[in-house]
Amino acid sequence: MAYTNVHRGARISPTKARPVAQMIYGKSVFDAMNMLTLSKKRAAVMLKNCLQAARSNAQERDGLSDREALAMVVTEVRVDSGPTMKRFQPKDRGRAHPILKRTSHITVSVDQAGSKR
User: Rounded distance, CA 17 to CA 115, Å?
Assistant: First the structure.
């Protein structure tokens, strides 16, 4: 059974978060946590929090030990675009240029290493 966590409205653009998400797909939770801890990208912090929450969901529901939870595999990592906040920057001669502050919905799922979908 897969255990999922969703961070909705994360204040980072999906374009910046997707490469970090692809980095941990298919890895064990232990390896993924290490990779995200050592990454310099800002999205790594948000993905690490989602991964920890998904792991905690698995431990809470099935009573898994820490060792069993760290052996789980990241089966799904998805970064979808969320709502965009629209702001304007004043420019010369009364003009205004739009600024789009993009948000993301980050989904992380973990499952047992040997289980099939």
Answer: 27
CA distance 24 to 27: 6
32 is a domain residue: yes
pTM for this entry: 0.88
Given a contact cutoff of 8 angstroms between Cβ atoms, the answer to whether 9 and 81 are in contact is: no
Query: Where in the sequence is the domain holding 11, given as residue range(s)?
Result: 3-111
Q: With 80 as the cut, is the pLDDT of residue 57 above it?
A: yes
Q: Which two tokens stand for residue 40?
A: 């310099």
Whether the per-residue pLDDT at 44 is higher than 80: the answer is: yes
Among 79, 65, 72, residue whose Cα is nearest residue 26 = 72
Q: How many domains does the chain have?
A: 1
State residue 104 phi and psi, 5-degree precision. Answer: -135, 155
